């Protein structure tokens, strides 16, 4: 195989690894999971089409280059970086351009030299070199937006007040200041919602970050704003999606700092309710084990959301399924379903849900289980009769 072709192939494979590193380890920015990248997969496909001739020998014509287009969410908007690599000269950093032409026009070679150090020490052998470059470019763009912020007194006051009120750092806020003639600016803030006291089993199914972001769009220069909440899957799995949280309406003349604190309190309340529900379910299952003993066939020992019991009353055997929702005990009572072991309806075993059980969310777990036990006992006869009739 021609040495020139081998060199080009190795450069391309190294480039593909750097892109894969970026995809696996994440993009910079608060909304890194929404970033988009294009270009690398196309180049790999082109290489495979070129690399094999009919006799199995590799061929290559022309000077290999590749372009990456990386669109990174920023402050509720987007910021696209175009990187042009020359794969026959991997020791050279890529050519760079940006979707924000005003930012590009204000950028000098000295800015890049001083504020993007990876360009000065470019090492194509490092798998994270593109990730380093994008992080530094995003920081440069963020500094540019903060410089623009100085020309907007209202937005600058909001920005500084949020840093102080929420006790967060500059890395927790992104701000995009509208260009001259634009009526819109936007801000994205990472709310300091802590899941430290949450039992790990409630969130471990989602391995991503626990992030709560509030996106605020400003209309005009009077501080009028429109909020939108974004929750990561890890947070959603605990308290529900942002669409179910019904953000409070923004009253006329509302102060953004007060509104943000209100949203944070709402989220913290949801977290406390989720933890309380878990603890109550745990106590409930413990009482089931205590009061029903050997009748317990199986139960959920992680989230404490389900118990299966096996009963035998006068040679009549049946199962009882008790299900506890994440809204237990305040908003939803336990669901109790009896299921016959003998008689089938046309498609499945005959079952009956007990809908008339006494329930009070203020009862302790022992009292709840005692009333369920009484309800089961009171319905055994009617359930047995109904299951027999269904089988006839």
Concise account of the structure shown:
It is built from nine helices and 13 strands.
Structure commentary:
By secondary structure, the protein is α+β, with helices and mostly antiparallel strands. Helix content is 39%, strand content 23%. It has nine helices and 13 strands. The chain has helices spanning 3-25, 40-51, 101-106, 109-115, 129-149, 153-165, 233-239, 256-292, 365-391; strands at 36-38, 65-74, 77-86, 95-98, 173-176, 184-190, 212-219, 224-231, 296-299, 306-313, 316-323, 335-344, 349-353. The strands form three sheets. It has a five-stranded antiparallel sheet with strand order 9-10-11-12-13, with helices on one face. Strands 1-2-3-4 form a four-stranded antiparallel sheet. Strand 3 (77-86) and strand 4 form a beta hairpin. The chain is elongated and about 90 Å long. Mean pLDDT is 86; it is low at 46-63.
- Spatially, the strands of the biggest sheet line up as 9-10-11-12-13
**N-to-C span:** 80 Å
Mean pLDDT: 86
Q: Strand count, sense and closure of the main sheet?
A: 5 strands, antiparallel
Number of helices: 9
Shape from CA axes? elongated
- The computed structural class is alpha+beta
Radius of gyration: 30 Å
Tell me the series of helices and strands, N- to C-terminal. Answer: HEHEEEHHHHEEEEHHEEEEEH
Q: Which percent range fits the helix content?
A: 25-40%
What is the percentage of strand-forming residues? 15-25%
- Unreliable spans are 46-63
| Number of separate strands | 13
């Amino acid at each position: 195989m021609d040495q020139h072709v081998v060199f080009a192939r190795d450069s391309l494979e190294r480039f593909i690894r750097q892109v894969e590193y970026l995809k696996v380890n994440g993009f910079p920015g608060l909304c890194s999971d929404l970033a988009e990248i294009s270009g690398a997969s196309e180049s790999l496909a082109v290489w495979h089409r070129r690399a094999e001739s009919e006799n199995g020998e590799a061929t290559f014509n022309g000077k290999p280059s590749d372009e990456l287009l990386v669109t990174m969410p920023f402050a509720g908007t987007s910021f696209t970086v175009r990187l042009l690599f020359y794969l026959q000269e991997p020791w050279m950093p890529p050519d760079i351009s940006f979707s924000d032409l005003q930012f590009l026009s204000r950028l000098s070679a000295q800015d890049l030299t001083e504020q993007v150090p990876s360009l000065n020490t470019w090492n194509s052998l490092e798998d994270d070199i593109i990730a380093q470059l994008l992080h530094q470019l995003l920081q440069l763009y963020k500094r540019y937006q903060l410089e623009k912020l100085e020309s907007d007194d209202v937005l600058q006051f909001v920005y500084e007040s949020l840093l102080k009120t929420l006790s967060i750092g500059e890395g927790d806020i992104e701000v995009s200041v509208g260009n001259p003639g634009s009526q819109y600016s936007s801000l994205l803030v990472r709310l300091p919602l802590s899941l430290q006291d949450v039992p790990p089993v409630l969130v471990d199914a989602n391995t991503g970050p626990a992030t709560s972001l509030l996106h605020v769009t400003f209309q005009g220069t009077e501080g009028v704003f429109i909020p939108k909440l974004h929750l990561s899957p890890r947070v959603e799995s605990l308290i529900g999606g942002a669409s179910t949280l019904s953000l409070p309406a923004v009253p006329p003349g509302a102060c953004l700092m007060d509104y943000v604190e209100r949203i944070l309190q709402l989220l913290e309340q949801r977290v406390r309710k989720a933890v309380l529900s878990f603890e109550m379910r745990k106590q409930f299952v413990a009482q089931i084990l205590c009061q029903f003993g050997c009748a317990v066939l199986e139960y959920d020992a992680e989230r404490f959301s389900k118990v299966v019991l096996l009963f035998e009353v006068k040679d009549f055997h049946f199962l009882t399924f008790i299900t506890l929702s994440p809204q237990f005990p305040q908003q939803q009572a336990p669901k109790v379903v009896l299921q016959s072991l003998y008689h089938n309806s046309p498609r499945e075993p005959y079952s009956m849900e007990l809908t008339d059980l006494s329930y009070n969310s203020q009862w302790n777990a022992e009292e709840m289980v005692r009333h369920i036990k009484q309800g089961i006992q009171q319905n055994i006869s009617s359930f047995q009769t109904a299951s027999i009739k269904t089988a006839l």
